Amino acid sequence: MLSGADAGSRELTREGFERFDAEQQPLRRYLLDKLPKSLDEAALALGYMLAVAVYMAFESSPGVRLFTLTEDGVAAADASLGADEELRRSDPMDALESEDIVAIEQPALLSFVNEHIGRTLEDNAGEIDVDHVALVFRAILVEILALSHAVQPPPGYAAARGREPMA
To answer: Which of 63, 11, 36, 53 is nearest to 135 (CA)?
Structure first.
């Protein structure tokens, strides 16, 4: 839907970006901080495209409504991923990566992200800074975690915990 070069695809992307910008400002600010304009041009374009695509995947899922994230909610997702990364670095026998844990909850979305990262690396081999792509990947993982915690329970469901994730 977003990958087409036609006017319809560009319009969908623009509208998705505008909704993301208006509805999830703390997450947008986080991503702007983690994806500075100083990144490699291809990595930055990849990051922006993935950020909008991930948001649109959540908002377009049937029956899914999202809470507006807070700064604390985004920070909790970032801290949660950081803690998981640190635990996995300290245990060399752990075969799973942090992205594998995110993929358990969002397998299709992680597949989409990995596919586009792989394609971007392949298309820009020798020209793209892979460290910048790694920064993009981590920021998108945080976005996926944060938005996963922002999904509202179905109407009539009594949530057992508050709406903000605990770090």
So the answer is: 36
How far is the C-alpha of 12 from the C-alpha of 23, rounded, in Å? 16
Q: Supply the Cα-derived Rg of the chain in whole angstroms.
A: 16
**Is residue 73 within 8 Å of 150, Cβ to Cβ?**
yes
- List CB contacts of 10: < 8 A, sequence separation 6 or more: none
Asked whether 143 and 27 are in contact (CB, 8 A), the reply is: yes
Domain ranges for the chain:
7-149
Q: How many CB atoms lie within 10 A of CB 67?
A: 15
Token pair for 152 = 């509202």
Residues 47 and 31: their CA atoms lie apart, in Å, by: 9
Distances in whole angstroms, Cα of residue 102 to Cα of each of 14, 54, 108:
27, 13, 11
pLDDT in tens, 55-102: 999 988 877 789 999 999 999 999 998 888 887 777 766 656 777 777
Distance of CA 141 to the CA centre of its chain: 5
pTM of the prediction?
Answer: 0.83
Backbone angles phi, psi at 95, to 5 degrees: -80, -15
